[in-house]
């Protein structure tokens, strides 16, 4: 009985995780909302050039970079706060 219950819970958990992932993707797609944007995506979203982005970064715009030569990301809220200064 315990094996059946454990298997059932495991399958339901996997099913729920898949549904959550699908819902998250649907929400992001419909709302056009992403928390982290690449440099190119941020420039397109906010309407400035990459040169301006790097100038803003030098002026104090917070970015997310995992390693020394890794991809640069920026949070939407950080760009909005920076532009509203």
What does this structure look like?
It is a single chain. The chain has 85 residues and is mostly helical. It has 2 domains: 33 residues; 52 residues, Arc Repressor Mutant, subunit A (Orthogonal Bundle). 65% of the residues lie in helices and 11% in strands. A 3-stranded antiparallel sheet has the order 1-3-2.
Mean pLDDT: 89
Q: Which structural class should the secondary elements be placed in?
A: mainly alpha
As a percent range, the share of strand residues is: 5-15%
CA-atom Rg in angstroms: 20 Å
Q: How helical, in percent, are the residues? A: 55-70%
* Assembly state of the chains shown: single chain
Biggest sheet: strands side by side, in what order? Answer: 1-3-2
Total strands: the figure is 3
CATH class of the largest domain: Mainly Alpha
What fold name stands as the CATH topology of the largest domain?
A: Arc Repressor Mutant, subunit A
Q: Tell me the span between the first and last alpha carbons.
A: 62 Å
Label the CATH architecture of the largest domain. Answer: Orthogonal Bundle
Count of separate DSSP helical elements: 4
Poorly predicted parts: none
Q: Topology as H/E string?
A: HEHHEEH
| Main sheet record | 3 strands, antiparallel
Query: In one word, what is the shape?
Result: elongated
When the domains are counted, the total is 2
Quick description:
This protein is 65% helix and 11% strand. With 85 residues, the protein is mainly α. The chain has two domains: 1-33; 34-85, Arc Repressor Mutant, subunit A.
